[in-house]
Structure formats: structure tokens, C-alpha cells
Design brief:
Helices cover 39% and strands 14% of the residues. With 328 residues, it is α/β, with parallel strands linked by helices. It has a single domain, classed as Aldolase class I (TIM Barrel). The radius of gyration is 19 Å and the shape is globular. Bound molecules: S-adenosylmethionine, 6-(5-methyl-2-OXO-imidazolidin-4-yl)-hexanoic acid and iron/sulfur cluster.
């Protein structure tokens, strides 16, 4: 969708927007399911980049220390626990500028992915910048989706990050698409951007070809010590709901993931987000470095609403499943 159309959609009376989003949602998603995804920070802190919202940048004095890449067996334990708890997607994040083929750490990541992908969940990684070769190898190892957010509009991006460009983000996304992985791409609300910035971000995302398989909508979790730690007004709940609704309309087949920031949202607020088209959440007490609602509370909310956690995949129906793995 183009900016003008997104803007007209966004500016409708609130109930008209919700009605439109709900109709699009029901056309493409018939099952009243919410996907539960578990996040794990496999390499925390010490990142060279200066993203001004991030607890893991080495440039800011936050409470997060730099750690080494986790051991494969520990990651596997966490992935198994996530599957036991009902997650159908396991997302591994690393605080790196990017990964490079031929390095020891990239080989370690490939080994980790090979192990985790045998568990039958969707395997998502978010490791920073990728070239064509790295993307191909991750796909071969069993990554089904790669998360790389554009975070805000092209115009606002330089206000938020100076160590890489918006174009760098798009290049990585292109490599992910070329390698045949699904793209998970969304952004953050609350970086000091205006509504037009948010809609320009959605314009870029909705014009990807193919459209992304998932769109995470994060609401800024202010991190003390970062440039955005205390300076920015929280985003109005109605603006968040409107953005979820417009994302649902603009990218109808994507999972719209209500991501960071749920800890600060009431149950009623989250419910309106589900109604507007959100159909995936991060599940488990921790995101990467910050807290998330307790699992029991999330399950209780879904139950109250008559929503079901997405059922586990069988061997054959997991997206991105290779014929070789499916036959095991
Ligand atoms: N280093 C990789 C990258 O930059 O793509 C992966 C990790 S990064 C933490 C993944 C995404 O988490 C960011 O693009 C941003 O959308 C989101 N994020 C990070 N810190 C956040 C915060 N404090 N509040 C909300 N979202 C945040
Ligand atoms: C995404 O869009 N949000 C997740 C995931 N992709 C990697 C990360 C949220 C991080 C929130 C801040 C933190 O825990 O450090
Ligand atoms: Fe944080 Fe990722 Fe930016 Fe590094 S590249 S500072 S981990 S958001």
C-alpha cells in the first residue's frame, strides 16, 4: 500500500478502522489462534552499533553486560522447554553488527541452528547484517525466518542509528528473501517519530516483494542509560491499536506480532490489539534483556478471550521444512 492510502486508512474513525481490520483478519485467519514465540538472547550485550533504544549497545552505560555466545547444549535445553510450554517458534537473537561466513562464531551458530531445527518449531534468528552467502547457509542449516526490523521510517532512521543505514537494513532483507527464508520485519513505536513516520515504515514493509511473513510491532521499552531512556513520551494506546489495525490491513497474510512493551499494557489493551489483528506474541518471562508478562498470565488471558495458542506443527506442516527433515 502507498503512503496516502495508509494515511486515509489510519485516519478513519476508530471503529471504522477496527471494523475494516477485523474483516481483513477474518478473511485470512479463521482459527482464533495466537502464535506463541519464545525469544532467547544467545549472545547478549557488547554490540558495536549505536541504536539509541537498545540495552545491548556497547556505547551506552546500561545494566546489561557483554556475554559470550551461549553453549549449544544450553540453547537446546531452552528450545526444548519452549516447545514443552507451547511455543511454535523459537527466535534466537545475538547482539552483533552482523555475521560473516568463515568465522568460528558463524560456524557455531550454524551448528546451533541445525540442532534447534530438529525440534519441529519454526526457527527464527536475528543476528544483524547478512550477506548472500551467510543467508544461504542459515537457510540450509534450518532457519525458517530471519528477523531484521527497519524500526522506523527511512527519514527518521538516521536520528536513531548512525553506525549503519536504512539501506543496509534493506540489503540484508533482500539477501534473506533471495535465500528463501521468510522475512520477519517490523519496527518500534515511541522513538520520537510522528504518525507519518510510522506509516512510511509500513509503506516500506507492505511493499516488500514478497510481503513479510511476520511483522513485529514493538512499543519502546525505555532503557536507562540509552539516549531514549527517559526522554520520550510513551505512545498513546489508541495510536498503537491503530497501527496494529493498519498493519493487519496492509500486510493481510502476515502474523502481526505484538512484541516488546506488553508488560506495560493492560489486558484490555492487549485484547483490543488482538481484535485489531495481532495474532502472535512473545511468550515467556523475558524478551532479550527486559521482562515480558508471565506465561501463566498470558495463557489465562487467551483462555478468557476464547483464543487458543497455535497448535504444534507436525513433521510435515512446519513452514520452511526441508524434505530431508520432514522425512525423519
Ligand atoms: N542485533 C540485531 C538487530 O539489530 O537486528 C537483533 C537484535 S535487536 C535487539 C531486534 C529488535 O528488537 C530491534 O530491531 C528492535 O525493533 C527491538 N528492540 C530492541 N530494543 C528494544 C527496546 N528497548 N524496546 C522495544 N523494542 C526493542
Ligand atoms: C522484535 O521485533 N522484538 C524482539 C525480537 N524482534 C528480537 C526483541 C524485543 C527486545 C526488547 C528489548 C530487550 O529485551 O532488550
Ligand atoms: Fe541492539 Fe541490534 Fe542495534 Fe546491536 S544492532 S545495538 S543488538 S538493536
Amino acid at each position: 500500500m502507498q503512503f496516502e492510502q495508509l494515511k486515509r486508512t489510519y485516519e478513519q474513525p476508530f471503529f471504522d478502522l477496527l471494523k475494516q481490520a477485523r474483516a481483513v483478519h477474518e478473511e485470512h485467519w479463521t482459527d482464533n489462534e495466537v502464535q506463541l514465540c519464545t525469544l532467547l538472547s544467545i549472545k547478549t550485550g557488547g554490540c558495536s552499533e549505536d541504536c539509541s533504544y537498545c540495552a545491548q549497545s556497547a556505547r551506552y552505560n546500561t545494566e546489561v553486560d557483554s556475554e559470550r555466545l551461549m553453549e549449544r547444549c544450553d540453547i537446546l535445553e531452552r528450545a526444548k522447554a519452549a516447545r514443552e510450554n507451547g511455543s511454535t517458534r523459537f527466535c534466537m537473537g545475538a547482539a552483533w553488527k552482523g555475521v560473516r561466513d568463515g568465522t568460528k562464531r558463524f560456524d557455531e551458530v550454524l551448528e546451533i541452528v541445525r540442532s534447534v531445527s530438529k525440534l519441529g518449531m519454526e526457527v527464527c534468528t536475528t543476528l544483524g547484517e547478512l550477506g548472500a552467502e551467510e543467508a544461504k547457509k542459515l537457510k540450509e542449516a534450518g532457519v525458517t525466518a530471519y528477523n531484521h526490523n527497519i524500526d522506523t521510517s527511512p527519514e527518521h532512521y538516521p536520528e536513531i542509528v548512525s553506525t549503519h543505514s536504512f539501506e543496509d537494513r534493506l540489503n540484508t532483507i533482500r539477501h534473506v528473501q533471495d535465500a528463501g527464508m521468510s522475512v520477519c520485519c517490523g519496527g518500534i513505536l515511541g522513538l520520537g517519530e510522528n504518525t507519518d513516520d510510522r506509516l512510511r515504515m509500513l509503506e516500506v514493509i507492505s511493499n516488500f516483494n514478497p510481503q513479510p511473513e511476520s511483522v513485529p510491532i514493538n512499543s519502546l521499552v525505555p532503557i536507562p542509560g540509552t539516549p531514549l531512556g527517559d526522554s520520550v513520551e510513551p505512545v498513546d494506546n489508541f495510536e498503537i491499536i491503530r497501527m496494529i489495525a493498519v498493519a493487519r490491513i496492509a500486510v493481510p497474510k502476515a502474523k502481526v506480532r505484538l512484541s516488546a512493551g506488553r508488560n506495560a499494557m493492560s489486558e484490555e489493551m492487549q485484547t483490543l490489539c488482538f481484535f485489531a489483528g495481532a495474532n502472535s506474541i512473545f511468550y515467556g518471562d523475558k524478551l532479550l534483556t527486559t521482562t515480558n508478562p508471565q506465561s501463566e498470565a498470558d495463557l489465562a488471558l487467551l483462555e478468557k478471550l476464547g483464543l487458543a495458542p497455535q497448535a504444534p506443527y507436525t513433521n510435515q506442516d512446519r513452514p520452511g521444512q526441508s524434505a530431508e527433515l520432514a522425512s525423519h
